[in-house]
Amino acid sequence: MPEASSPPIIERQRLTADAPDRVAVTGHWTAAAVSASGQWDSLAGALDQVGPSLDAHWDLGALRRLDHLGAQILWNHWGRQWPGQLVVSVEHRAVLERVARLSVPPPVPRRRSIWERFLGLGNFLLVLVDHLRDAVALIGQLVLDIARLARAPRQGPWRDISGHVYHIGATALPITAMVGFLIGVVLAYLTSQQLRQFGAEIYIVNILGLSLVRELGPVLAAVLIAGRSGSAITAQIGVMRVTEELDAMKVMGISQGFRLVLPRAIALALAMPLLTLWTTLAALIGGMLAADLALGITPAYFVNNLPRAVQVSNLWLAMGKSAVFGIMIALVGCHYGLRVKPNTESLGQGTTASVVTSITVVILIDALFAVLFKNIGI
Amino acid sequence: MTSTVPAVTAAHPVIDIRGLWTVFHQAGVDIVVHKDLQLQVASGEMLSLVGGSGTGKTVLLRQILGLARPARGTVTVLGESAEQMGRQGASSRVGMLFQHGALYSAFTVLENIAFALRELKCLPDELIRDAALLKLQMVGLDVKHAHKMPSELSGGMIKRVALARALIMDPPLLLLDEPTAGLDPDSSDEFCALLRSLHRELGLTVVMVTHDLDTLFELSTRVAVLADQRVIVNAPPREVVAFAHPFIHHFFLGERGQRAMELLREYPFVV
């Protein structure tokens, strides 16, 4: 039979003028009863009204239930000492006594001193240096592994590479196409508004062609892949750290660089240019359709004029920098993955840092390419 | 709102499982794990669930918690259907110690223990802190560990913190999944002693899944053996050992079992 829980009640009763007051504590003093909606406020009010009154006669005889939280409330109310007169059943006294015995002042969380903060600043720099050293080691190892692959191509991790090409490249085709198409449409509509004012509608082919082929296609694809696959690479390798798989590989004498980093770097170096081409095509199709609708420029005119507006060297430049983007996304992902410490929190931090860093690196490299090749194809 | 605290008597066991079927679908084939399983746990018992691999011990524990739904049959815990338990006030009815602790890695030890109380969002911070510190000491940890993160703790400490967290609302029922797995023999013995003293002091009902015969004989007042898709016997340890079944013979009277049985002879506890 379910027994309804009654609220915790405390009342002060004045018996006679000279006898000490009686404080009656009844009902359920349990975590569930105290935390029932609105119960705590009324209980706190009643406790305030009664006051600590240690000289009163405390009667807990009619108390139905008392758990540790209820006992803690009473004990704190008494100012952590026993009242003068207390009537309580044996079992409830045991709970109260346990609370009394184990109530201690809370430990003070350690605050960082100014000197420690100063040292923390230096530590930040050391972590940065550590990152750089790891990154250099990773790139060096990749070069060595490529040399090893070139010497003995038959022993290369080809199955891993093809698996990664599929997971990173092929499965990303729908999303990159959709995003590319929409960006093409948006860009075409925006520029068409401006071009119409000058009567320069036909130049939409030049603007769309150059910006999509040379800049937006590669960067868009790289940012998408950095978010999609960069995080996946970090998470995969990080989980291998958490589950000690990386240590198992080391024990078996299998090179992490050769089996984990190299396949991903090669797969991304192959897949990224192809994805760039695919994204650029989708964006051009989107732009072409929007130009037809907004300015009446037919797709036939668009396709015929595109080679005249955009030199083919732009395409080679885009493909070249995409391959570099791919390698950098793989390296950043592996770098953060290998630095994950064996706990779940570190895994989350590593994955976030990996995505942010790889997108930043992609944009930095893009800027570098823009400066280095400013005389080519324009 | 008034919550209900059911009075548990012999007629109303803490856990009442009737006609339970568990079926897994694997590669188009139905695998029956439990077939018309019955299990009753009376108040104040310390019941161990034992059985070979794949007999569905942990699944049964999850069904008692309402984390998994049986294909057929009813699971009643403290007078309520197990599926209703996941709602409000769950941690004041049942505490669960997961096999690997399942501490929230983003919180400190104290925040982990206090989490259920803090989520009620009505109690003052100082009271919550005091209540959490009390539980921390009840499981035998020093207050200096209160501000550590779970990643800084040893395996035995993680289990203790997880136990303190399970006990924060003083639930009448405690479920343990492999409480001593992954602990060294010393910590394992200490943890058993802690569980036994808490069981005695708080009058808890405890259900645990364990493979460790030492833990089993040291703690349980009853043992339920899962085999042939049902509970073949549910009785005090001595009677279970005497029960004639190939699994029981192999499990208790093998070489490992013999060693643990020494415990039973040395400490003939009252059941």
Q: What does the secondary structure layout of this molecule look like, with pairings?
A:
The complex is a heterodimer of chains A (378) and B (271).
Chain A: E1 2-4, E2 9-13, E3 22-29, H1 31-34, H2 39-50, E4 57-59, E5 63-66, H3 68-77, E6 85-87, H4 90-102, H5 114-151, H6 158-169, H7 173-198, H8 204-242, H9 245-251, H10 256-295, H11 299-309, H12 312-339, H13 344-372
Parallel strand pairs in A: 3-4, 3-5, 4-6
Antiparallel strand pairs in A: 2-3
Chain B: E1 4-6, E2 15-26, E3 29-41, E4 46-51, H1 57-65, E5 72-77, E6 80-81, E7 94-97, H2 109-119, H3 125-138, H4 155-166, E8 173-177, H5 185-202, E9 205-209, H6 213-219, E10 222-227, E11 230-235, H7 237-242, H8 246-253, H9 255-266
Parallel strand pairs in B: 4-9, 4-10, 7-8, 8-9
Antiparallel strand pairs in B: 2-3, 2-5, 5-6, 10-11
Helix pairs in contact in B: 2-3, 2-4, 3-4, 6-9, 8-9
Written description of the protein model:
The complex is a heterodimer of chains A (378) and B (271). With 378 residues, chain A is an alpha/beta fold. Chain A has helices at 31-34, 39-50, 68-77, 90-102, 114-151, 158-169, 173-198, 204-242, 245-251, 256-295, 299-309, 312-339, 344-372, and strands at 2-4, 9-13, 22-29, 57-59, 63-66, 85-87. In chain A, a hairpin with an 8-residue loop joins strand 2 and strand 3 (22-29). In chain A, helix 5 (114-151) crosses helix 10 (256-295) and helix 7 packs parallel to helix 10 (256-295). The mean pLDDT of chain A is 90. Helices cover 36% and strands 25% of the residues of chain B. Chain B is α/β, with parallel strands linked by helices and 271 residues long. The interface between A and B is large, with 40 and 37 residues.
Task: Describe the structure concisely for a colleague.
The complex is a heterodimer of chains A (378) and B (271). Chain A has 378 residues and is of the alpha/beta class.
In N-to-C order, the SSE pattern of chain B is EEEEHEEEHHHEHEHEEHHH
β-strand number of chain A: 6
Order of helices and strands of chain A: EEEHHEEHEHHHHHHHHHH
Percent helix among the residues of chain A?
over 70%
Portion of residues in beta strands of chain A equals 5-15%
The best one-word shape of chain A is: elongated
Percent of residues in helices of chain B: 25-40%
Structural class of chain A: alpha/beta
Percentage beta strand of chain B: 25-35%
Compute the average pLDDT of chain A.
90
Q: Termini separation of chain A (Å)?
A: 86 Å
Sum up the overall morphology of chain B in one term: globular
Tell me about the largest β-sheet of chain A.
5 strands, mixed
Using only C-alpha atoms, the radius of gyration of chain B works out to 19 Å
